[in-house]
Amino acid sequence: MKKLLIMCGAGHATSTIAVSKVTKWLNDEKLAGKVKIYQSKIADELSKIDSYDVVVSTTIVPDSIKDKVINGLPLLTGVGLNEFFAELKKRLAI
User: Distance between CA atoms of 77 and 50, rounded to whole angstroms?
Assistant: First the structure.
């Protein structure tokens, strides 16, 4: 099972919206049983980022982890949503 972290600044509002949309997408793609979603705030996860297969963030991340993180802003704005889900599927590799 793949481990997907969705994080935001405080671990509440925007990550909750993102989790909801990703969960719906996983269900629609018949991938829900293959991915476990974790939700948190960025400050709690910086030192554990390598514990996850894929990381989505709705907030700015440090340069040191940018290559490991998918920008989750499309989940909030709707702009670039298809590209976001294509990248997520590619990184999940399932």
Answer: 27
